[in-house]
Write a structure and sequence with these properties.
With 376 residues, this protein is an alpha/beta fold. The chain has two domains: 136 residues, Cytidine Deaminase, domain 2, CATH 3.40.140; 209 residues, Dihydrofolate Reductase, subunit A (3-Layer(aba) Sandwich). Helix content is 29%, strand content 23%. The strands form three sheets. It has a nine-stranded mixed beta sheet, with helices on both faces. Strands 2-1-3-4-5 form a five-stranded mixed beta sheet, with helices on both faces. Strands 7-14 form a two-stranded antiparallel ribbon. Strand 8, helix 8 and strand 9 form a beta-alpha-beta unit. Helix 3 packs parallel to helix 4.
């Protein structure tokens, strides 16, 4: 994605002042956009700010899928004060008739003079807004706070760049890297604050995945219990053999209510029939790459993988993890416990996987760290 298009002015001092103000206002637009977390998919999260004479006169965000886009929300708040103002928005304004009219028409009609955009829209159906606004005589600046804008809507952007979903691997562990004690107990390693954040992560994901061992040992619901609830609960995806799937599990008992998938290979006909009667859709694939491609074909743009250790190792070794989120609790379980990365291949120090720290945050006594894997 081109990050060189930032606009220019002949007065260098003015350029510096404008750039500083542009970044601050765009960061505010991004914070507004995040208020749509869990409510906008399959649309991206978008925020918009209208600034007149250095003051915010209107702001808005895409509240929910099907509702007004952020630009329209902000322009409605600004009213007549939008004329001659600057509009900040973290994604290129749409230029097509979808569930709502083109945002470009509303921007031009409102008399906006200048538009600052963080990121072009990769969706060929909606893009073209930047060109349309420029052809109408507006000054359009592109690329302010682009990296933050990319991170916010990474699953949406990935939809147009890859055949698989955007994958976040989440693990809760002790200081010594254990995800369960010697007999498999793992409830609870982290505290309530961390678990609330995990529910927020689920609310922003299209699907949550675990391995069969985790399903059997923990009997998780894999639901997002947030306030407000997400627009739709994430689908549940189980990796493993169908015969091992407990009929009494929360997942099986609610498979007719929430989309539920089993990723497996070469199951017998009787098992497949039992699963389908229970409401489980079976994805048969020979390897993880093909599994993820089939998951993506079902409209799942973002996948939150919550373990266990074997599934986590396979995702990491195959290079299919985009973000690794570790919640580390201040406790020790010692030898004999199940460690988070025991399934990874042995490496020498010179060949170690080196990750980029994206974010650190404290939740109660626990420390959350978000890592990015290097591009393949």
């Amino acid at each position: 994605m081109d990050q060189s298009e930032f606009g220019s002015r002949s007065d260098d001092v003015t350029v510096l002042m404008l750039r500083a103000d542009d970044s601050a206002q765009m960061r505010h637009a991004l914070s507004l956009a995040e208020r749509g977390w869990g409510q906008t998919a399959p649309n991206p999260m978008v925020g918009a700010v209208v600034v007149q004479g250095g003051k915010i006169v209107g702001e808005g965000f895409h509240v929910r899928y099907g509702a007004d886009h952020a630009e329209v929300d902000a322009l409605n708040a600004a009213g007549d004060r939008a004329r001659g103002a600057t509009l900040y928005v973290n994604l290129e304004p749409c230029n097509h008739h979808g569930q709502t009219p083109p945002c470009t028409e509303s921007i031009i009609r409102a008399g906006i003079r200048r538009v600052v955009v963080a990121l072009p829209d990769p969706n060929p159906l909606a893009s073209g807004g930047i060109a349309m606004l420029r052809s109408a005589g507006l000054d359009v600046v592109v690329g302010i706070e682009m990296n933050r804008a990319i991170e916010l809507n990474a699953p949406f952007l990935n939809r147009f760049a890859a055949r698989r979903p955007w994958v976040t691997l989440k693990l809760a562990m002790t200081v010594d890297g254990a995800i369960a004690d010697f007999d498999g107990g793992s409830n609870w390693i982290t505290g309530e604050e961390s678990r609330a954040e995990v529910h927020r992560m689920r609310a922003g994901s299209d699907a949550v995945a675990v391995g069969m061992r985790t399903l059997i040992s923990d009997n998780p619901r894999l639901s997002a219990r947030t306030a407000p609830l997400p627009r739709r609960q994430p689908a549940r995806i189980i990796f493993g053999r169908g015969k091992a799937m407990p009929s009494h599990s929360h997942i099986m008992q609610t498979a007719h209510e929430v989309p539920t998938y089993l990723v497996t290979y070469e199951e017998d006909a009787a098992t497949l029939q039992t699963l389908r009667r229970a409401g489980v859709e079976v994805i048969e694939a020979a390897d993880l790459r093909e599994s993820l491609a089939q998951i993506r074909e079902r409209g799942i743009d973002s996948l939150l993988v919550e373990g266990g250790a074997g599934l986590a190792a396979e995702f990491i070794e195959r290079g299919f993890v985009d973000r690794l989120v570790i919640f580390q609790a201040p406790m020790l379980l010692g030898s004999g416990s199940l460690t988070a990365f025991s399934g990874l291949n042995t490496r020498r120090l010179v060949n170690a996987m080196r990750l980029e720290v994206m974010k650190r945050q404290t939740f109660g006594p626990d420390q959350m760290t978000v890592y990015a894997f290097p591009a393949p």
